[in-house]
Each structure stands twice: as structure tokens, then as C-alpha cells.
Amino acid sequence: MIKLVASDMDGTLLNEQGNIPSHFWEIEKNLEEKQILFCAASGRQYFNLELLFSSIKNNTIFLAENGALVIFRDKVLFENSMSKKDLKEWLQIASSLQNVFPVFCGKNSAYIEKTENETFLTEVKKYYHKLEMVDSLEEISENMLKLAICDLNGSETNSYPHYKKFNAEYQVVVSGGIWLDIMNQSTNKGVALEKIKEFFEIKYDELLVFGDYLNDYEMMSCGKYSFAMENAHPKLKEKANYVTKSNKDEGVLFTIKQFLK
């Protein structure tokens, strides 16, 4: 019997307009009635996820910042902040590349350096509800959960080759078409999801999990019923135990309904 549903957001649960499908709420009510937990597992900021699921906040586990922060009912269940010792070099690389913008992700807010690039500003505001502009990211005093890189020229082919050398010490992952995340080596959605399973006493065959991109890769090993979306990255499809319909065709909701029958 399923006791936990964990789903990525963008390209997975959310539709192509970045919205939660309208009949998700009816399905979530069915999950609640059957005492099945729901986890929003995303690279997004906690405050952004909290806003998306404000009506069911007390019934939602928030796995934010690709696993660097897990919150349930305003209580931090897990947090994994990182060293800033290489931040200066990361920022220098970003500034040397065209259309590449770093985002300092803290627990209390996200921070970007002052810019008038409207394309970037529109993109970053989709994922970060609490966002501050500063003169330099090196001046931020709060702990860093991750450094996100918004690469308008394509993260996998443009910026990743410049950051992949840090993989020996950090987790450097392509998290979307124009997004790259640098985190602690021990930070990923899979590690965070295992912490959630332990906290709520969820077994391997009691988890239903969905994802579409490489930042979902480790999650696919956490549960027997791991599903990659039809629109998922080829490597994720290889890793998952199953493939479901695309986010456009509401594959997450379709699959959950099959398990609720």
C-alpha cells in the first residue's frame, strides 16, 4: 500500500504553463482521506512551494532546494548548508559567460546581483518568491543552501562544462534546460527523501515517486514505484522503474489515480 507520494514540480506535476492541474486538489483530498502523505520535491525555494500549496500546507512535506531543505508544518526536518569557500570562483565563471546569472539560495531568501536583464528576472521570479537584489553575492552573511545558475544559453552545453570540475567536491547537477545547481556532495533529492522516509517510517514499496530531470535521478532509487515522465531526460527514463505520461498529459495525476483504485 502506498503511504507517500513524492513529486517533482516543473516538467512533472506542473503543466506547461507552470500551474498545478485543476483536479489535483480532488486527488489530494483522496490521498488525505487514505492517510497518504504528499511531498512537493523541487529545486524551487521553500517559500515558492509554500505559496503553491498554501491551501494544503499542513498536509504537504516540502522538499526544497533540491533536497538542501525539508520542512513540514513549519518545522525543519532536514537542512544541509554548504561552504562558501569557492563562491568567488563560481561567480567569476558566471561573469565570464554570456547570459549566465548566479542565484545565492539561502534559507531566508534568495539573492541575485543587480541586473536589468528582463528575461532572467522573469525566469528567476517563477521559482523564488522571496528574492533580494544586492551589489555582490559575496556580501551575503546567511548560510548558503545551494548556488543556482540560470544559463539562458542552455545549462547542459554552455555552463556545465565550466563547473563540472567541481563535481569531485560538490554536487553539480543540470536541473533544467537553463538551470544548473551546485550543492554539497551529500545534497540531492534522494538523500532528503530517504530522511523523509525514515522520519515517517515509509518503506521502499510504500513510496510513489515522479520526476523528469537529472536532479530527480537519486529519487528514482528511493521507491519501488519510481516513474519518469514521458518528457523526461533520457538518463532519468533509464534510471526509473516505470515511465508515465508527460506532464502535458497530466501523467502524475493519471498514475496516482491508478494506485488509488
UniProtKB/TrEMBL annotation:
Matches recorded under PROSITE patterns? COF_1
User: Cytoplasm: present as a keyword of the record?
Assistant: no
Q: Which GO terms describe its molecular function?
A: magnesium ion binding; phosphatase activity
Q: Which InterPro entries match?
A: Cof, HAD-like_sf, HAD-SF_hydro_IIB, HAD_sf
Q: Which SUPFAM superfamilies match?
A: HAD-like
**One GO CC term on file:** cytosol
Entry keyword Hydrolase:
yes
Gene3D superfamilies associated with the record: 3.30.1240.10, HAD superfamily/HAD-like
Q: Which UniProt keywords apply?
A: Hydrolase
Q: What is this protein called?
A: Cof-like hydrolase
What is the organism field in this record? Fusobacterium equinum
